[in-house]
Design brief:
Blueprint: E1 4-5, E2 14-20, H1 23-31, E3 39-45, E4 52-56, E5 59-63, H2 65-68, E6 71-73
Antiparallel strand pairs: 1-6, 2-3, 2-6, 3-4, 4-5
Amino acid sequence: MQKRSVADLKIGEKAVIDSFSDQWMSLKLLEMGCLPGTEVCLHCKAPLGDPICLNVSGYCLSMRKSEAATILVE
């Protein structure tokens, strides 16, 4: 079974960050507060689905869907 990523979440759905699939991208995401064990919630998507907006650690974080696909969730 393949793990789900943040890119798979539906609007309003919450999940907990488990790990990252891209080591280089994980450094950038860690600096932005996307730490393993942190709860994230998909707040909204752009009309064409990219970029997306997440609620992480009390703030909104916008990112490309390709970046969100590297964040694996439980």
